[in-house]
C-alpha cells in the first residue's frame, strides 16, 4: 500500500485558498477552526492541486493567508533563499575540511545552487522544501550536536509538515541522540494532536487520504524521482511495482546504514545526514524534483572531499589521475541535478529514445543516488577494514592509532561523497 507522504502543492497556494479565492463564500483570512477541511478542496492555487500534507501543515501555513497573494509568494521565495544560505553555512562549518573563507563560500555557493533544478523549482513554486531542510540541518548539525535540550524539536516540526522527515528521527536514534529522537516524536505527535483538536474533521487524513497517492499525481511521470516511480515506469504501472520498490529499498538500506554509521563514527555528520535524507527520498512513494533540495549540502560535502583530495589534508596527496577523477565525479553529480532532462512518458518518445536511454533519462536522480550508494558503500567498507587492521599499513598498532588521529580529516574521505546516497 502506498502512502501519500509527498505532495507538489505549495504553502502559498494553501494561503491563497485560505483567503477565500475560488471559494467566494469564505471570508478572507479565516483560520482552520471554521470547520472547512483542506482535503475536500481539489483546486488550490494556479496549479489546481489537492492538499495532501498532514493536518498540522495546514495549521502552520494559515498565517500566510493574512498577506496578499503576491506578497505571500515573495515571502516564501525570500525565506527559501535565506534558508538555503543557512544550510550552506551550517554545512561548511560542519564538514571536516574547508580551506576557503566561510562567508564568501556561503554567498557564492548560495548563488550557484539557485541553478540546481530542485532548488529553483522549489523557490519558483513557493514550496517549503528548502525551509524544512534548513530546520532539519540546523537541528541535527548544530542544536543536537551541541547536546542542547532543544535538540530534536526541529525534526519534529519538519515531520509534522511532511511525513518523510520522520526518517531523521531514526537518524538521531542511530547516531546516539536518543533523547533528541524522543523529543522529535513528541513534537510531531503534539502538533498533529493539537491540529485534530482544532479541526477534528481532518482526522480523515490518517484513515483515508494518506493512502490515496492519486491525489498527489501520477507516480509514473519522470518528475517522480523515487524507487516507486522508477519501478512504476519500468513495469508499466504493474500492481506489484510498489512491492518491488520496497524490496529494492530494503537492499539499499544496507549500504545506507553502513554509510551513516561510518560517517558518524568519523565525524562526517553532513555526509551522514545527507545519506539519510536521500535514502528517505528514494523510499518515498513520490519524490518530485523539488523534493531533492538536499543536493545542496551534498554539493558542500563533495566540495569538501575534493578540496581534501587535492590538498592532501592529513595524508599523502592523491595521485593526479585520482584528483581529476574526483573532480569529474563532483561535476557529474552536480550536472545531473542542474540540467535534468525530463522525458515524457509515452510510447512514441520511448521508441524514439530506445529502452536504455529512456530508462536513464527518466530516472536521473534515482540512478545517480543508487550508484553513489553502492560505490561509496564498498569504498567505506574497504577503508573500515584497513583502519581496523593495523597490518594493512605495515605499522604497529600504536603508530597506526597516532596516524589515524592525525589524519582524521582525510580518513574515509571517499565516503564524504556518500552524501548523495
Task: Summarize the helices and strands and which ones pair or pack.
Blueprint: H1 11-18, H2 55-61, H3 69-94, H4 102-113, H5 117-125, H6 129-143, H7 153-161, H8 167-174, H9 178-198, H10 204-207, H11 227-235, H12 241-266, H13 269-283, H14 295-311, H15 320-336, H16 347-353, H17 355-361, H18 364-388, H19 397-406
Helix pairs in contact: 1-3, 3-4, 3-5, 3-6, 3-14, 6-7, 7-9, 8-9, 11-12, 12-13, 12-18, 14-15, 16-17
Give structural notes.
The chain has 421 residues and is mostly helical. The radius of gyration is 22 Å and the shape is globular. The protein has 19 helices and no strands. It folds into two domains: 1-132 and 192-217, no CATH class; 219-421, no CATH class. Helices cover 60% and strands 0% of the residues. Residues 1-10, 17-33 and 387-421 have low confidence and may be disordered. α3 (69-94) runs antiparallel to α5, α7 (153-161) packs across α9 and α12 (241-266) runs antiparallel to α13.
